[in-house]
Amino acid sequence: xxxxxxxxxxxxxxxxxxxxxxxxxxxxxxxxxxxxxxxxxxxxxxxxxxxxxxxxxxxxxxxxxxxxxxxxxxxxxxxxxxxxxxxxxxxxxxxxxxxxxxxxxxxxxxxxxxxxxxxxxxxxxxxxxxxxxxxxxxxxxxxxxxxxxxxxxxxxxxxxxxxxxxxxxxxxxxxxxxxxxxxxxxxxxxxxxxxxxxxxxxxxxxxxxxxxxxxxxxxxxxxxxxx
Length: 227
Prior knowledge:
Elements: E1 3-7, H1 12-23, E2 27-34, H2 41-52, E3 57-62, H3 96-111, E4 115-117, H4 133-146, H5 148-151, E5 157-159, H6 167-176, H7 201-213
Parallel strand pairs: 1-2, 1-4, 2-3, 4-5
Helix pairs in contact: 1-6, 6-7
C-alpha cells in the first residue's frame, strides 16, 4: 500500500477525504493541527474519525496561530459570523492551508510518502482563497521544487478529491465510503457540551448538504439553533 498523509480536521469534508483515500488503497497517516482554534472540540472528533476509518496513525501537531490572530477562529475578540457575508468571511485563518499542507509535506518526506490528501472544496464553501484548485496546483508545484524527496525523483501529489463537489455530493460520497457523520464536528462555535450552534457558516453549509442529499442529518444542535 502506498503511504499518504491526510489532513484531518474532524469535520465532514476531511472525514470523507480520509475515507476516500482508504477506499483507494492508501495507507493513511492522519494529521491534525491544534492551532489555537476556538472550536478545539474538532480535535476530539478527528481522533474518533481516524480510529473508525482505520488510519495507520493519527498525529496532532500543536502550532498556536493565536500569536497572529486575524481570524474569528483564533481571536475571541472577533465574532463568528452568523449570517452570510460578502467576500472572504472573518472565519478565514490567514495562511492556514499553506501551513497545514507544509506540515503534511514535511511528514510525508519523513514517511517516504508521495501523496497528500486535503478536504478542500471550492463549490459549497466559505470562499477561502486557499481552497481553490489553482492554489492547490501551485502548492503541488512548490512541493516538487522545495523538497529533497522530489529532487531525488519522488514526485509529490496533492489530492483534493472533493474540490469540485457540492456539499450534497460530499455527503453522498461519505455515506458510500462508510463515514459515520455523527462523530464529526463542523461548527465553529459549539457549546461546552459539543452541540452545534446551527448559525455559523460551517453549520449552514453542513445542514444544506444533508438536506440536498436527502440524508438524515446526525448533527446535535443547540436548543436555540436556527431551523
